[in-house]
Design goal:
This protein starts with a helix and ends with a helix. The protein has one domain. The protein has a two-stranded antiparallel ribbon with strand order 1-2. Helix 1 (2-29) packs antiparallel against helix 2. It contains two helices and two strands, in the order H-E-E-H. By secondary structure, the protein is mainly alpha-helical.
Length: 110
Amino acid sequence: MNKIFGYLLTLAGLGMILFALVSMFKVFTGAQQPVTLVPNFNLNFNTQYGQMGLDTKDLLPIINLMLHAMLMFFVAGAGARVAGVGVNLVKTDAVAEALRKNKDEEIKKL
């Protein structure tokens, strides 16, 4: 049972990593828009020369691109952790089977 669950977790983790890589590739090649996390806004500053306005329309694609990359790195990292847990489950089950097999052989020798 642990072996099946371990393989499922490994596949799920690899799927998360693949999703993150494909999403980042599509966004950086321009085939897909990044997730819009920061809406369009205007900044107004009061200075000694009067009020100055800063339009953030040019900065928003860069900000959203960076936030999308950070989100996808997080998803890829989580996928790596999930896959690692799955590999450890499979490895633990293989070690337990080897120990059981070795113990059975020692009992047969007696």
